[in-house]
Amino acid sequence: MLPRHRRHGRSLLPMLRTLSTAATLAASCPPPHPIPSPDAVCPGDTDPASLPADDAIAALPSLADSAGSAAALSLFRRLAARPDLRHLMRLYATAATTFVPRGNLPMAHEAMRTMVTAFAEAGRLKEAADMVLEMRSHGLPLRVETANWVLRVGLQHPACFPLAREVFDGMTRSGGVRPDERSFRALVLGCCREERFKEADALLATMWQQGFCLDNATCTVVVRAFCQQGRFKDVSELFRRMSEMGTPPNMVNYTAWIDGLCKKGYVKQAFHVLEEMVGKGLKPNVYTHTSLIHGLCKIGWMERAFRLFLKLVKSSSYKPNVHTYTVMIGGYCKEGKLARAEMLLGRMVEQGLAPNTNTYTTLIDGHCKGGSFGHAFELMNKMKLEGFLPNIYTYNAIIDGFCRKGQIQEAYKVLRTATSQGLHLDKVTYTILITAHCKQGHIMYALELFNKMEENGCHPDIGTYTTIIAAYCQQRQMEQSQKLFDKCLAIGLVPTKETYTLMIAGYCKVGKSTSALRMFERMVQHGCLPDSITYGALISGLCKESRLEEARALYESMLDKHLVPCDVTRVTLAFEYSMKEKISIAVSMLDRLDKRQQAHTADALVRKLSAADNLDAASLFLKSVLDKHYTVDHVTYTSFINSCYNSNRYALASEISEKISKRISNFQKKDATAIA
């Protein structure tokens, strides 16, 4: 049992005992006089709900005696609406102990639910939850409906999530009731909203085991959570389970999946999901198509996006809405095709759709990115005339535009205009300015903004932290970078791939590849998958410290994971092996590459070795490559032979020329044989 509620240093238990005893006596002992009428309880025309607080509450059991529990419940509802009584525990305790001895448990539970709602509003949900449990000792058993009510109300208030979780966990342990399907659904929703994805996974697993199924509304939230984490295969498994349990996914569920895929740039997969959806007899709506259009715009496939948009325009079932037009306008703005974006805005108005603040902000953002600030301000004035006030997102677009052009002072002028209109800086505003200062090397200004951000209750996200970390890494201040990184972990932020990669590259830059390796291991352990950039930074760092075997092991691991090393990574590692006269290893690095990558790597390496005046290593590598019949560019041969002549290495130039001539001759013979 949770600890009994105490308020002002007094336990509620004596109060409950007094109220319970009085109510029991009133219900069990016959009155010495006839049952009084309502007028006898409240003489004359006095309304009990208008009495002073103490008298109004005391009227509840009396009215229950004289007019019945229904009349008392009606009075309770009116009293609970009074501001001076709504948050008074004694009202709810009196009501519950009035109804319980009369056998009206549903009414008592209603009193408890009303109390939970009222106290949650006042930030006192813990007190209400304690009282619900306390009432068990006064004859009111805990019901799953009431426990679920505490759960749902608690989950509506983010600060109350720990208490909601405690109520759920305590249902079986101390409440004598078992969580039902609705209990699980409510907590799954709460976990997803709070981004407690591991807890949500555990709850879902328990649900399946107990034969409970998600409803479609909860499914949509879970799908969005999975997509946010990139767990698209889990969405497919979720849909399979729901279908098996008799609640197949609906059109909204599929649209959430399509939208999640498009936001991550997996547009082809989104169209495959669309086919699956249609195959199950579900018709996509305007929101489904808008998500697909957004995805196509995101990856730059504007022609396909426009074709799909036209399909909506011509459809007799549904037409593009304001959001659809805004998405298309945003796509054209991203490509710098502002004339087309303006044309769509005009078309939108012709169709009777009024552009909203988001539409104007999208277009303003496009003009600012293109440097057309005059046009952006004209649009802002136009939206004001049409009754749409610019919001902080609108101003952010202009501030970002100036910052991208390096005009920070102009950005601050716009910021002052925004704040003079009562707008508050948000996370995006701070991050834009912090990024701009970091790019210009003004890390002290960036830190000042960072601290102001926290002071003003606008908590930096991992993106903001990553920006500051990047600035420190750029300035080789790895101790400061590490402190910020550790702070991220301490406050529960999850470092991204970019955060880890910056830290790894930073440590490699200052010659601390051991620290970089530790960071890499931590990255993998925390489920953040490194990409080719991460591997490349670490391999380059290890090469600088001549830790070639470790670098090569990472290179092989990278290929095993089907990651494609960039030219710099391949050449750097092969160059270091060549300089140490380990040509066979350098050549073997080409074996797992395709022909194009082999040619690029061989060409770049020969040129780099020649530029380093190591013609012997370059010739050995070139001979080995030719022996393996790998393709080498003609320009590379010419460059190498010219380097030999410049260094008076005529014999070496002659040797390589002869080898090349023989190879060409062999190819010509093969071609002649093939023709014959």
Automatic annotation (TrEMBL):
Residues in PPR repeats: 108-142, 180-214, 215-249, 250-284, 285-320, 321-355, 356-390, 391-425, 426-460, 461-495, 496-530, 531-565
Top-level taxon of the source organism: Eukaryota
Signal peptide residues are 1-28
Arranged from A to Z, the UniProt key words for this protein are: Repeat, Signal, Transit peptide
Q: Which Pfam families match?
A: PPR, PPR_1, PPR_2
State the coiled-coil residue ranges: none
PANTHER family associated with the record: ATPASE EXPRESSION PROTEIN 3 (PTHR47932), OS10G0484300 PROTEIN (PTHR47932:SF2)
Tell me the NCBIfam families matching this sequence. PPR
This one is known as Pentatricopeptide repeat-containing protein
Q: What is the lineage of its organism?
A: Eukaryota, Viridiplantae, Streptophyta, Embryophyta, Tracheophyta
